[in-house]
Design goal:
Blueprint (H helix, E strand, L loop, with lengths): L2 H6 L12 H4 L5 H8 L4 H15 L22 E3 L23 H19 L6 H25 L13 H6 L6 H18 L13 H21 L24 H23 L22 H4 L12 E5 L12 H7 L4 E3 L1 H5 L25 H5 L4 H6 L6 E5 L3 E4 L26 E2 L13 E5 L1 H15 L4 H13 L6 H6 L3 H4 L7 E2 L2 E2 L2 H13 L6 H7 L4 H5 L5 E4 L15 E3 L5 E3 L20 E3 L28 H5 L30
Parallel strand pairs: 4-6
Antiparallel strand pairs: 1-3, 2-7, 4-5, 8-9, 10-13, 11-12
Helix pairs in contact: 4-5, 4-6, 5-6, 6-8, 6-9, 8-9, 9-10, 9-16, 9-21, 10-16, 16-17, 16-20
Length: 680
């Protein structure tokens, strides 16, 4: 049995890992153990599904440097690190020689669970207790989550929901990729099953999956597929489109417009059920920028929600990953990055400019009150009178970063922008503050941070409904209206979003917001402002790249490569040695000296040339290993990731790639280390 075939086959040996050493030796042979005993006990079922929490859901990396999940928007028009991904450079994203994007480990483990549990319930061997119901609901949820993670990356995907025997012909038959819409429908079915079993509150509290989590994921999946089909319609990236490599016989009576309508409707239904529940439950925004007191008491729940250890009291948080220093200790390094420097990443100028004024007007609109000279006066000045989310989650000049010993305040030093460490400096000047805790003890020593990692946040349901409603109906209904006003009210922005829509200039917005486009064309002002709201609310939470992909919002980069910008540096208070905000350092004699930016693209430069403009041009600081010096570009084939080329060998009856039952995604070759080709 070859490697690929083995990946679809389920044995029973992994079960031993879920039994205690002292009693396992006294049990009957493993095959009998699995069939007769293991899946007849609720505690065993609970233990079995527990492992999927750590291995599948996003969380801050344990014992690792960096910014945790707050770095997951890197490599987008929202946020960047020093190294901009090679996917934005022609010919640099290459196929792999392994089996990338083709793993069924979690799926087959969950299939094994259902293979035994459901018959055991039917036969009476297993009682349907609360614990058993919870475990079954979790298993359906995690299978849906894994299918979503895989299909959202590569599109068409096999649907394998049973334990397959060790029969090569049968295994190959089940390896055929199913049309993506069918996979999405299957995910929704799994989530429907999860909803039937999951309780309102998990036995694990907010560290466990509950019914609300399933509703939120269901709305996310349906919105993803509905918008993907809508914006990629007529291309090889949807079933039945020109050049689609799939099997037309699998399409049945496929009607893409009917499918779009179905998924958008389902997104609205699931999002509304949860969204209505979330109304009045969103974390309060008191407007306090320095959101913790010296004793670390929360002064602004909205800000503190992202940086505290214990998130149980936040109704908006549906589920989170907890960390602790006591045994069993699981902690991170993220607060060291938050409190001492910029973590090697920052928001783009486009991200910052998307935040409207508190009066609801875009910054360029007549009467907004925004003064362009503010950008020369520093970050704090730039953010004044704006949407409070910009003021809360972006570091201002000399802003508070931590309290030491319950009293001693530390402030942010913008001079990190010109430091030697490219992994630490706030590359754009707009440093992230979303997730900072202010508790200095979390940054003192290695692996001291215990900041909770939010897995699901209820406000997403409101955003999902708003977008699905506008995409489906072309207007804002009463529910979407109430949701939008609730989000803007919390952000301390005039809730009259129509004022923003009326003043929106799409040409200007398109200069710094890739989401202003779909298929290379600017979208209408209503839809854009729904996307803007999503961008601003979910900043630094890892949604942006998938949003851009499903909106087909990168085509314009192919026609006109773009630069990414940071804050204004030249001709500002930062570059003026006489300014109170001049960037300085301390020399070896303890004297404060002005930091002179190094413009040296062929060597060790840390700043783009003033000849490029007053704003930092993020992709034109240094040429060393920089594939995007001449701008970021894109190829339509890249909306789907390639399948690793070993898959085509191992999924062939005789090792001949040409006979593989698996097809590569459009534009990508089946030979390793090769770029994609252009597709229409």
């Amino acid at each position: 049995m070859n490697k690929y075939i083995a990946s679809l086959f389920i044995g029973t040996s992994m079960i031993a890992g879920f039994t205690s050493c002292e009693d396992y030796l006294d049990r009957e042979p493993e095959a009998n153990l699995v069939a007769e005993n293991y899946f007849t006990d609720g505690a065993n079922l609970s233990a079995y599904v527990m492992r999927f929490y750590d291995g599948m859901l996003p969380s801050h990396s344990s014992n690792a440097y960096g910014m945790g999940t707050f770095a997951n928007d890197n490599g987008t028009d929202n946020q960047v690190a020093r190294s901009i991904p090679s996917r934005y450079a022609n010919g640099q994203w290459l196929t792999s020689n392994d089996e990338s994007n083709w793993s069924f480990g979690n799926i087959r483990s969950l299939n094994l669970f259902f293979e035994y549990v459901l018959p055991n319930i039917e036969s009476g061997k297993l009682g349907l207790t609360d614990l058993v119901r919870q475990s079954i609901g979790e298993a359906y949820f995690f299978r849906a989550y894994q299918y979503y993670a895989s299909y959202s990356t590569i599109g068409d995907y096999p649907i394998i929901d049973n334990v397959l025997p060790d029969d090569k012909e049968l295994l190959l038959e089940n390896s055929y990729r199913r049309p993506r819409n069918q996979v999405a429908r299957h995910i929704l079915e799994d989530l429907d099953n999860a909803l039937a079993y999951l309780p309102e509150s998990s036995d694990k509290g907010k560290q466990g999956v509950n019914r609300d989590c399933a509703l939120l994921l269901r709305s996310r999946v349906a919105l993803f597929e509905g918008t993907w089909l809508k914006y990629h319609k007529g291309t090889a990236l949807v079933p039945g489109g020109p050049g689609w490599p799939g099997d037309a016989s699998l399409l049945g009576s496929f009607d893409i417009d009917a499918e779009i309508n179905y998924f958008l409707t389902e997104a609205m239904t699931s999002a509304k059920e949860l969204g209505d529940k979330m109304m009045g439950q969103l974390a309060e925004n008191t407007g306090v920028i320095d959101a913790f007191s010296p004793s670390l008491a929360p002064l602004n729940p909205y800000f503190c929600m992202f940086g505290q250890q214990d998130l149980d009291s936040y109704s908006e948080v549906l589920m989170y990953r907890a960390y602790q220093l006591t045994a069993p200790a699981v902690s991170t390094q993220i607060q060291h990055s938050f409190m001492t420097h910029g973590g090697g990443l920052g928001y783009t100028r486009g991200m910052i400019r998307s935040f409207v004024m508190a009066n609801g007007l875009p910054i360029y609109a007549a009467g907004s009150g925004f003064d362009p000279d503010w950008e020369s006066a520093g970050v704090t000045a730039t953010l004044q009178d704006r949407d409070s989310r910009a003021q809360l989650f972006v570091r201002g000049d000399n802003c508070l970063t931590s309290y030491k010993n319950g009293e001693e305040a530390s402030t942010y030093n913008m001079s990190w922008l010109l430091t030697e460490s490219a992994t630490q400096n706030p590359i754009t000047g707009y440093a992230n503050k979303k997730g900072c805790s202010f508790d200095y003890s979390m940054a003192e020593g290695n692996s001291r941070a215990t900041t909770g990692s939010i897995t699901f946040r209820g406000v997403e349901a409101l955003l999902n409904y708003m977008e699905a409603c506008v995409e489906k109906n072309g207007n804002v209904d009463q529910t979407a209206d109430s949701y939008w006003k609730a989000i803007r009210t919390r952000a301390k922005v005039d809730p009259d979003y129509t004022k923003t829509i009326a003043a929106t200039n799409m040409t200007i917005e398109g200069e710094g917001d890739w989401g202003a486009y779909s298929r290379g064309v600017l979208v209408n002002t209503l839809l854009y402002n729904v996307r803007r709201e999503r961008r601003n609310e979910l900043m630094a939470e890892g949604f942006r790249y998938n949003d851009l992909r499903r909106w087909c919002a990168l085509d314009q980069l192919a026609a006109n490569p773009v630069n990414l910008y940071g804050m204004k540096y030249w001709n500002t208070v930062y570059s003026d040695p006489q300014s109170d905000l001049a960037l300085t350092t301390t020399d070896e004699d303890g004297n404060e000296v002005f930091l002179v930016a190094r413009v040296n693209p062929d060597g060790d430069g840390n700043m783009s040339s003033q000849a490029e403009g007053d704003w930092i041009v993020l992709n034109r600081v240094t040429k060393n290993d920089n594939y995007v010096w001449n701008g970021l570009t894109w190829s339509r084939a890249q909306y789907l990731s390639p399948i690793g080329c070993d898959v085509f060998v191992t999924s062939s009856p005789d090792g001949d790639k040409a006979k593989s039952v698996v097809y590569q995604n459009p534009g990508w070759p089946t030979t390793g280390l090769q770029p994609c080709t252009k597709i229409d």
